[in-house]
Structure to design on (202 residues):
């Protein structure tokens, strides 16, 4: 399995998940300016949508979109606990979290990375994030991870996108439980391994 990634992008969640499973994999970094990879591939031929994460399987098939990629990785190593069994109510709750993170939190950070975004657009995004993160803060009041006592791919995803707060100047001071949560996840060996591999930690 090969993961195509960009340092600091949401593909870091998939990178973390792969390290958590212990499965063999390789990585190839996307060069944003050319859409070529460090390994010499034309990324647009791999994924015409042009963004990460993307995984290429050993049979040559390709899977895109973070929520799908994360669940695929988790399902390759059921014993890892990264995702509940398919068809269970717990699995639907995982999908609920993944969808919420994708549509309500991930996308709300997007304006902060766009040079042409106006201050009004950024202000609206900031207000939206405050409301959504308040929900997460409440959910983490009495449990270490989103799904309870077990780390899942939803935690990998949330860790990455909320971690962007440092890059865009979004203050997490009103969310002490989230800050504790981020520190707890950052200490995981698989998280540190993924971040070091992506050049995000020394």
């Amino acid at each position: 399995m090969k993961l195509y990634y960009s340092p600091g992008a949401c593909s870091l969640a998939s990178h973390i998940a792969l390290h958590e499973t212990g499965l063999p994999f390789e990585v190839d970094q996307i060069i944003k300016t050319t859409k070529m990879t460090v390994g010499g591939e034309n990324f647009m031929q791999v994924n015409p949508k042009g963004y990460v994460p993307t995984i290429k399987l050993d049979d040559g098939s390709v899977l895109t979109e973070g929520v799908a990629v994360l669940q695929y990785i988790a399902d390759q190593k059921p014993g890892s606990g990264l995702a509940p069994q398919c068809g269970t109510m717990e699995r639907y709750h995982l999908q609920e979290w993944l969808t919420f993170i994708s549509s309500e939190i991930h996308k709300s950070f997007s304006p902060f990375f766009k040079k042409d975004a106006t201050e009004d657009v950024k202000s609206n995004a900031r207000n939206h994030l405050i409301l959504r993160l308040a929900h997460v803060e409440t959910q983490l009041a009495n449990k270490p991870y989103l799904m309870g006592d077990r780390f899942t791919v939803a935690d990998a995803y949330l860790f990455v996108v909320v971690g962007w707060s440092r890059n865009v100047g979004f203050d997490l001071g009103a969310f002490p439980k989230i800050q504790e949560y981020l520190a707890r996840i950052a200490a995981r060996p698989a998280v540190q391994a993924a971040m070091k591999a992506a050049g995000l930690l020394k």
